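Bug report

Summary: structure tokens for Resistance protein differ between web form and batch submission.
Environment: batch mode, default settings.
Steps: 1) Submit the sequence below via batch. 2) Compare with the web form result.

Sequence submitted:
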Amino acid sequence: GGVGKTTLMEEIGRRARRESMFDAVVKVVVSQRPDTVKIQHALAVRLGITLPEDVNLAAAALASRIKKEKKILILLDDVWDRLELKKDVGIPFGEDHKGRKILITTRKAQVCGTMECDTAVPVDVLSDEDPWVLFKSKAGEVIEDPDLEPLSREVVKECAGFPL
């Protein structure tokens, strides 16, 4: 972790909202031990609906609500294992996804394969001069002061390409 997957996802969500690319943009953190009821509830809250207590009825109600959105972006962050999006959670997937997009972040590349993702985009640590450019953009030109630059470059080196 720590390469910036969540930050990248959040920026995609912000831009999608700002540019009105979707009618709705909803984000849910899944985590290492996913709880279907919590995922459903988080989606329902963001979509403004109340779900029945039964998990199967909740999945059906959630699917029905999501299908009402012509264009929706669902952001699922920190997915560790395969999720049954349609059957268990209630997120239309596969043939039912017209106009609906799902973006998943995961540390495990095999998750994309098991969830039949259309496209996998690896996010790796920064390379070459990118960490220095990022650090400078956040810290300001002051880090190029002859007294500070060696220490600043050491900090960047210690981060080993992670955008900390």
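Above is the batch result. After comparison, the two runs are identical; trailing whitespace caused the diff. The chain has a mean pLDDT of 87. Residues 31 and 78 are 5 Å apart (CA to CA).
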